[in-house]
Amino acid sequence: MNVGIDLISFQTSQYFLDLATLAQVRGVEAEKYRAGLGQERMAVPPPDEDIVTLAASAAKPIMEKINSNDIELLLFGTESGVDQSKAAALFVHGLLNLSKRCRAVEIKEACYAATAGLQLALAWVQQHPDKKALVLGADIARYDLGSPGEPTQGCGAIALLISANPRLLVLDPETGFHAENVMDFWRPNYRTEALVDGKYSTLVYLSTLVDSWRQYRVATGRKLGDLARSCFHLPFTRLAEKAYVRLCREEKIPEPPPDEIQRKIGPSLLYNRQTGNTYAASLYESVAALLDNDPEDLSGQRISLFSYGSGCMAEFFSGVVQPGYREHLFAERHRRMLAERTELTYRQYEDVFRYHVPADGGDHVFAPYRTGLYRLQGIKQHVRLYAATT
Fold first, then answer.
1. What CATH number has the domain bearing residue 320?
2. Does the annotation count 79 as an active-site position?
3. Which residues, given as ranges, of the chain have pLDDT below 70?
4. Which of 49, 72, 79, 241 is catalytic?
5. Is there a catalytic annotation at residue 111?
6. Tens digit of each residue's pLDDT (9 = 90 or more) over 288-298
7. Active-site residue, from 102, 111, 231, 312
8. Containing H/E element for 299?
9. Is the full-model pTM beyond 0.90?
10. Is 382 among the residues known to form the active site?
């Protein structure tokens, strides 16, 4: 039986900071961010936006196209949890009015978490082909002001509908994966900003890519040339270029010219350049960008996906794009959302960055900003209160 991604929807915040603005304040050349990192803008969430509102807004367009009672599994991958006990999946479950006959769970392993959810969902749909699973990935990437990681900040959410006989991408059963306890990136419970050893993390990313690829190659007998396009987890988009070249080197293929690398991975980078790192959503934001924007018809073509979560967990897998896939995309919605965002000044960005959700247990009402289809209204006696915006 074929199983895979039936629909895919992406959401980011309605505000952004241009990295040229950040570069000017930090006293560096804008090209350090634009060319060196491959980033142009970072998405900035307002005080009444969090992973729950982002994920629910990403999922809503999918819910409008299906019978919600068919969803009996909801898996939410994130490293930006809003509660130490209650799953963010249950907040989203309520906002989407899903059936009470539904398993709803939150999964954590850095940026790999949504892929863990995807693999669990694929196995579950194999057992229940008449039902569907909803996999969410949402995060807010935060680093200290002025730190090397600051220009890669961002936020966003992805929603994947997993089904039998999917309309977008049939996923292959063979995968390569790698687990190893390393300290390249982490965020202790007492911190709101992550800690990262950027150079070390890049080295681990590339080494686990090669190990996962080798396993995948043995399991499938496929070569790099059998993959029409490649999507990667994107802490910053320049890393995807390094990753693709590293695979070519592993296969003893001469480094492709820039236009060939652009054809293989370029369309998949378009959204991440505008949002910054979205952690658990990042890889699937890349998949959405590829399907939405590649000028060639990818029907029948096999694409690869590489998922990496610092700490670390990595996986290399693939899928075949289905005929007629373009009829089932939310491409226009995604483009319009990115085009209609509001640009922040540096001062506005820093004010938002320094804002912290009150933790005193009192009653707090949050002023309304521009958000997606849902917002965080406030907190009452330690309870987070969410509502639709329309």
1. 3.40.47.10
2. yes
3. none
4. 79
5. yes
6. 999 999 999 99
7. 111
8. none
9. yes
10. no
